[in-house]
Write a structure and sequence with these properties.
The chain is of the alpha+beta class and 232 residues long. Helices cover 26% and strands 11% of the residues. Strand 3 and strand 4 form a beta hairpin.
């Protein structure tokens, strides 16, 4: 009979408490680079500043080593989460349902850990909005393929409806990702739209991220040349 299992994983999340076996996977000298530069109006924007005042900021790190250790702990929690996902998949493989089960893995948001001088999730920048999304649909998806097209979590519901052969719901805002599941290189003319607070929006195409805040200020990033969004 049809069945469905929802598994919610808290990690990675504050407090950043992680076992040494996972923390040790990320030596501090191997962590991603960071560019310190004038904020170009980013954190001075009232909407951004309001969330900086409420959530942890990098000012709370005593020194650079502590900041890097926090990043390593965050990444260690990601690996710990991956480990537990593996345990679930191993159990699924032990059943006779693995080849007839749709698997979807996603996250609700990313998190800034000192990049752009921010330690928050409440931004419209890439780090807070680009989340993991993995779909396994037996007989449809090809193992190991990667899709670079921008999509939205709003697309998951209509995608699952089509995968399960259920009636369409035309009132939904998202669209089915079935064409991309079959062929990740399919032409795709829909950007991903993000909103954080009234009047603050971002649009992400395959190359660009454009942000417009409620006061009319704007940011534009070219990910072909600036994947870390250092230059507005």
């Amino acid at each position: 009979t049809p069945w469905c299992l929802f598994v919610g994983l808290v990690a990675p999340h504050f407090p950043l408490v992680v076992a040494e076996e996972f923390l040790s996977l990320y030596p501090l000298d191997s962590l991603p680079p960071r560019k310190l530069h004038p904020r170009d109006g980013h954190a001075r924007h009232p909407w951004v500043q309001r969330h900086h005042d409420f959530w942890p900021t990098e000012d709370q790190f005593h020194d650079e080593t502590e900041r890097l250790t926090a990043i390593a702990a965050y990444l260690g929690l990601v690996s710990w989460m991956d480990h537990n996902i593996g345990r679930i998949l191993d159990k699924l493989d032990e059943t006779d349902k693995a080849e007839d089960t749709i698997i979807v893995l996603w996250s609700d948001h990313g998190y800034h850990l000192g990049d752009k001088e921010s330690c928050v999730k409440f931004t419209l920048w890439e780090k807070a909005n680009h989340v993991p999304l993995i779909i396994v649909a037996p007989g449809i998806t090809t193992p190991g393929t990667v899709c670079e097209r921008p999509v939205s979590l709003l697309d998951l519901y209509p995608t699952l409806i089509e995968l399960c052969g259920l009636p369409e719901k035309p009132e939904l805002d998202g669209v089915s990702l079935m064409p991309l599941l079959k062929n990740p290189n399919t032409e795709w003319d829909r950007p991903a739209l993000m909103t954080m607070g009234r009047g603050n929006h971002a649009v992400r195409s395959e190359r660009y991220r454009y942000i417009r805040y409620s006061d009319g200020t704007e940011e534009l990033y070219d990910h072909d040349k600036d994947p870390w969004e250092w230059d507005n």
